[in-house]
Amino acid sequence: MKFKTSYIWAGLVALGVIGWMVSGSFTGSDEAGTAAVNDGSGQDMTTSAGQTQTSPEQTANAAPRVSAVIVENAQIRQSIRASGITEPQAVFTISAEIGGTITKVAVREGSAVEKGDVLVVMDTDTLPSRIAAAKAEMAAAEAALTTAKTLSGGTYEEERAAALANLEVATQRLEIGEKLVAKSFSAPVDLAQLKANFETARMTLARIDLEKNYRAELDISQNEARLAGAKSSLVVLQDQLAKSRITAPISGWLETVHVDEGEQMPAGVVAATILNMNELSIIVAVPQTNIAQVAIGNPVSIDVAGIGRRTGTVSRIASISTSTTRTFDVEITVPNPDRMLRAGMTVEADIDVGYQPAFGMSPAHLSVASDGSLTAKVDDAGVVRVKPVELVRSGVEQVFVSGLANGDTLLTFGQAFVEAGDPVRVLMEPTS
């Protein structure tokens, strides 16, 4: 990881170390100049070139002294910061279901609306009078149907009762006539007439039973059809009246009104656009190096200039990166019950990706490699070892890095003047 500001920190450390060297404590030597090596017999050992040969003990004592501490990792909350712009959760377009002349635009663009609020009113022309006429026709049809049903029952029973009575009289007369003819008190021609009367009465009753008052039933059927037609017409007219008033299907912000008063609007034309602002979406770009840490449901802290902090959650993660930036779009859903957030606001989002082990230290304890990457120098049995580290969290007085191991002896003072492989004498800093 590039960490150019570490050059500044290293410079500050260098100033302190220079002062330390001037004091003479950095060299680790008690005497200046060349020291002769004694072989144990009291004689100094020198080389043929006149150079003094140094023993391993003297070499160790001459190693630079550096300060160090034992590092232990800590679990820190890690987040990924990204910028984004608020967007409405949903956009609704409301179209006219019937054509007509716009007589009223009831709300202004940019205002808040509630579900069911009237947005646009169209001229209904004769709809109210036609609805009244349809209601009157329906009432008349209902009355006619009731009358037909009443007459149907009464007329049928009356006609059948009369026919039955007539048949009984004809039957009695025929029986009497037959007795009279048998005793020669009456002529056969009279009996024939009685028989004819009987047959006529019987057939009349049979016809009434067969027809079952067909005429009355026809009247009932016709009035039922009349009533159904009146009801259907009333429903159609009432539906047209309702559709002449365009209302908001949801609560939100009236973004755009596409018609003006006095304008003739055909059916199917978009009349208004409403934004659902009860929830907002924020699309942020997350680099490839961090996208594996992001998951659906991760909490997000959002900073909105002029409004303050809000909370949201990760609701969608793109499966394909953008072709230009090679970043992944992450959608964050933010509740907006007070509707203070508007579409198009710039926000800073901190996506909480959980805890990560890291090592805390002063920025001056780090070094910068020639390629600009961050390193830490540790003691490895009296020899300097350089470990690459990555910044997890930055700060002015303390930073957290990864790349070290628990128990590492981190060089904290004088490390700027030693390199990998150099021998060192480590002076452990006191622990608080």
Features:
single chain; 432 residues; alpha+beta; OB fold (Dihydrolipoamide Acetyltransferase, E2P); 6-stranded antiparallel beta barrel; elongated
Describe this structure in words.
- The protein has 6 helices and 22 strands.
- The protein is of the alpha+beta class.
- Strands 3, 16, 17, 18, 21 and 22 form a 6-stranded mixed beta sheet that branches.
- It is elongated.
Integer-rounded radius of gyration: 52 Å
| Number of distinct beta strands | 22
Order of helices and strands: HEEHEEEEEHHHEEEEHEEEEEEEEEEE
Q: What structural class is derived from the secondary structure elements?
A: alpha+beta
Distance between the termini: 31 Å
Q: How many helices does DSSP assign?
A: 6
Tell me what portion of residues adopts beta-strand conformation: 25-35%
Question: Sheet with the most strands?
Answer: 6 strands, mixed
Mean pLDDT level: 77
The rough form would be described as: elongated
Give the proportion of residues in helices: 25-40%
Low-confidence stretches: 1-52
The multimeric state of the shown protein is single chain
Record the SSE blueprint.
Layout: H1 6-22, E1 37-38, E2 44-45, H2 56-62, E3 65-70, E4 74-95, E5 100-105, E6 112-113, E7 118-122, H3 127-182, H4 188-211, H5 214-243, E8 245-247, E9 252-257, E10 264-265, E11 270-287, H6 288-291, E12 299-304, E13 308-317, E14 327-335, E15 346-361, E16 367-368, E17 374-380, E18 383-388, E19 390-393, E20 399-402, E21 409-413, E22 425-428
Parallel strand pairs: 3-22
Antiparallel strand pairs: 1-2, 3-21, 4-11, 4-15, 5-7, 5-10, 6-9, 7-8, 9-11, 11-14, 12-13, 12-15, 13-14, 15-20, 16-17, 17-18, 17-21, 19-20
Helix pairs in contact: 3-4, 3-5
